[in-house]
């Protein structure tokens, strides 16, 4: 056998495809799962950039499939060489449970339950999941915002100040990114906004009204990639924190609590 007659081995490396090619492949995957589950198959949808018609030439395919049963949460993720796909298989109860979950990352993670492209859904399960994802009380958001500020942002500010005090300057860029990320989550929770995708979180958050003072300059610094010199990075993070403190007071979000009062509530 000559070298020219040998088949070239597949490489697990992303190659460029058009939106139409990627969508056609997603439909083929959906058909395969439908055949696999047969009468247990209840719904299928595409989520992510492909569902929003915002995919790039190297984007992957993200889908979920709902099947009969209980407590099912099985991810299928694979590379076929030049493209990659992820299909999350749920039973309806598990799909609804995850859709209804509310935590500090809700504005970022729940886009999959809100922004999807249905391929098969005769029972309206997808719309029920969307409704659950968006149905939370003002009191729930209020308490979660407080927990996000104290449990996440406060800790990042402490780490930033430690890095400055101990001259661990290489840590500052990561802390600045973390602070900007939780700032976007904070704004999303405040406005009950589920962002459309992970790559557009900061851009979308900057369009929301009533941000803490210092948030926009911090995000602009992160997006520019100019996370230096250390003093400038630390100053941007600290100014954002000062803005969060003032913003919390304006929105009746108490950040200081008494341990005895907390214990008496428990």
UniProtKB/TrEMBL annotation:
CDD domains: NT_KNTase_like. GO terms for biological process: response to antibiotic. It comes from the Bacteria. Residues 124-252 form the Kanamycin nucleotidyltransferase C-terminal domain. GO terms for molecular function: nucleotidyltransferase activity. Pfam families: KNTase_C (PF07827). This is Kanamycin nucleotidyltransferase C-terminal domain-containing protein. It comes from Anaerolinea thermolimosa. The lineage of its organism: Bacteria, Bacillati, Chloroflexota, Anaerolineae, Anaerolineales.
């Amino acid at each position: 056998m000559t070298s020219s007659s040998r088949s070239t081995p597949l490489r697990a490396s992303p190659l460029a495809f058009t939106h139409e090619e990627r969508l056609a492949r997603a439909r083929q995957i959906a058909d395969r799962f439908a055949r696999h589950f047969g009468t247990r198959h209840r719904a299928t949808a595409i989520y992510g950039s492909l569902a929003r018609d915002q995919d790039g030439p190297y984007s992957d395919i993200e889908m979920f499939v709902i099947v009969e049963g209980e407590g099912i949460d099985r991810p299928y993720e694979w590379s076929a060489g030049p493209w990659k796909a992820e299909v999350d298989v749920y039973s309806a109860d598990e799909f609804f449970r995850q859709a209804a979950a509310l935590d500090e990352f809700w504005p970022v993670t729940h886009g999959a339950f809100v922004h999807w492209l249905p391929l098969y859904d005769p029972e309206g399960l997808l719309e029920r999941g969307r409704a659950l994802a968006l149905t939370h009380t003002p009191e729930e958001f209020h308490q979660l915002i407080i927990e996000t500020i104290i449990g996440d942002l406060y800790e990042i500010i402490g780490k930033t100040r430690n890095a400055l005090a101990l001259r661990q300057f290489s840590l500052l860029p990561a802390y600045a990114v973390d602070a900007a990320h939780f700032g976007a989550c904070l704004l999303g929770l405040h406005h009950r906004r589920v962002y459309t995708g992970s790559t557009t979180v900061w851009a979308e958050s900057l369009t929301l009204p009533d941000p803490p003072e210092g948030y926009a300059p911090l995000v602009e610094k992160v997006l520019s990639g100019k996370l230096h010199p250390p003093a400038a990075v630390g100053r941007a993070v600290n100014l954002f924190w000062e803005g969060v403190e003032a913003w919390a007071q304006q929105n009746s979000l108490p950040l200081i609590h008494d341990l005895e009062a907390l214990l008496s509530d428990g």
